[in-house]
Amino acid sequence: MRPSTFFIACAVLLSTTASADANPSAPLSSHQILPNAFKPPQVFHNVNLLRNINIEKAYVRETVNVVIENVDSKPQDEYYIPFSADVIDKVGGFEARDKMNPGLSFKTEVAEYDPYSPTQFFRITLPQTLSPKSQLTLSISYHILSTLNPLPSKIAQQDKQYLIYTFSTYTPSAYTTLKQKTKLKLPTTDIPDVIGGSPDRQGSSFTYGPYNDPIPAGALEPASVRYEFTRPLIHATLLERDIEVSHWGGNLASEERYWLTNRGAHLSENFNRVQWATTQYYNPPTSALRSLNVPLKPGSLNPYFTDDIGNVSTSRFRSNRNEANLELKPRYPVFGGWKYSFRIGWDADLRSFLRVLKTPEGGHVLKLREGGGAGHLTRGGDKREIRDRGAAGRGGGDGA
């Protein structure tokens, strides 16, 4: 099974952003252009704020729960979140919800106003204006890519890898914060360096604060931690997806092409193949990429795994009534600074993804996941949705 190439319905460039565990590749919703002299109006106070930072994986996940209060004399419905200019393009999966009503999500967008400004903003639009002196509890979540860096930057082939994470113990905010606390969750207790903040440490969890004195808008308190993370920092510089919808055959054919790189520590010496072969017997932790697991929908068929050379036989497909998994093993271990490109594909029953609209106009709705099946964060990609001639006359498109 390989998607045919005689018809392409559309091509959409994916952004760098995404939803972390659920989907780290969902693009930003939109951009809003603001005047160059813009500054968020001081119409809110953060009454109480709790920030949770998780660096257990190869990217940063943050959740901020904050009680905001309208301190202006007029109703307000726009709340701004600041990010430094070098970070905002790495932010993905940005969501804001009502903490008391999690099913209600708010509109979010990047507010661009000056490309040379060191600070940029996300804007959250509340579904209803917040009256003066009224409060609302926001739950804001997002992830940040490419902010964890190896230190030292070069290591021996079997050495442990350590990453450094730099952040502010004060939550960056466009408004005065009356009370706040920051919690940091690490993947290990092997943490040789902790700089700034004087945290309360419990195992692999740090707590900074509570800070009970008002903290002005824009205030930062730098801190950093260096911790052991002997796992690959896999990053997809590009992801392409082809999807072929066959109404005639009742089949959905998918193909994904990845260009991966490992952002981990580089090897300080030449790769030793004999040393690597001996580790296959006891499988120690390594900063190299050994394998990838691609969860597929139950019922998926005919998977394949190829790279620039050809078919890669070191793959394994497991499928039953409840799950389907494609286990991939690259031709070589991907150490820090190394690259690997490949493609995977599979067939699936179209009925699991397509439904007919019960409306006078008719038509079909195709449900697909964003991001790639391999589950790794992407910088960008080219998404192509492909329909066959069977779509014509079925409300599924123009056909070819």
How would you describe this protein?
The protein is built from two helices and 30 strands. With 400 residues, it is mainly beta. The two termini are 20 Å apart.
Any chance you could write out the topology, listing elements then pairs?
Elements: E1 10-14, E2 31-33, E3 44-54, E4 60-70, E5 76-84, H1 85-88, E6 91-98, E7 101-105, E8 107-112, E9 119-130, E10 135-144, E11 149-150, E12 154-155, E13 162-168, E14 176-177, E15 180-185, E16 193-195, E17 200-202, E18 205-211, E19 222-228, E20 234-246, E21 251-262, E22 266-267, H2 273-279, E23 292-296, E24 301-307, E25 315-319, E26 324-328, E27 339-349, E28 354-356, E29 364-366, E30 381-387
Parallel strand pairs: 2-8, 3-14, 3-15, 12-22, 20-30
Antiparallel strand pairs: 1-30, 3-4, 4-10, 5-9, 6-7, 6-10, 8-9, 11-13, 13-19, 15-18, 16-19, 17-18, 20-21, 21-27, 23-26, 24-27, 25-26, 28-29
In short:
By secondary structure, the protein is mainly β. The chain has helices at 85-88, 273-279; strands spanning 10-14, 31-33, 44-54, 60-70, 76-84, 91-98, 101-105, 107-112, 119-130, 135-144, 149-150, 154-155, 162-168, 176-177, 180-185, 193-195, 200-202, 205-211, 222-228, 234-246, 251-262, 266-267, 292-296, 301-307, 315-319, 324-328, 339-349, 354-356, 364-366, 381-387.
